Amino acid sequence: MRNNKTDFSRRTFLTLAAAGAAFVVGGDRQAFAAAAAVERGEGEGGPGVQYMQRISGDLFAAARTGSDSAFLRAINRHADIPKIAEYSLGNYRSNLESSHDARYRRGVARFMARFFSSQVEEYNVERAIITGERPYGEGETLVKTKLHLVTGAVYTVDWLLAPRGRSFKVRDVRVAGFWLTYFQKRMFERYIASHNGDVAALIAALRV
Question: Residue 79 phi/psi, 5° resolution?
């Protein structure tokens, strides 16, 4: 008998390929696994650029270690998990019981960490170059980067930063024009829909 909880982690991200965007999965891994040598492009960097340079050490350390726990530490430290988790429920946001909220957020963070750690070895990033930043949305900042793989392939990756006090949190990552949390939202919505709108089924599948 197949383990449905384990199968969820694999099957949901394979939905990307089914949607004709398998290359986005590769970019997603690179975005969190990069930062081995984050370089500043021409000109002085603003606060967003400076933030990305500061957190690059944690991201690279997680990629180098390649473990679930290493990625989980980086995600919990730098990702805007509350907002990512809320957005990912999509139309089923109101179905989440308040007593399950903390467990669901932990599940989202661990889900992301498991995925990145299981795939990071397939993509060898040579360097990441920050090319600039600009305002985006309501008080948010978009930091643009170019990721260079050892194979010679180059990916454009945009980091969406949300203000948090005097610093930022990573709200989203855009690879080749696709926002990654949008794909995660679609996956979660489909899973919940297949379980009659039961968000608790999703939480159980997230293995927390």
Answer: -90, 150
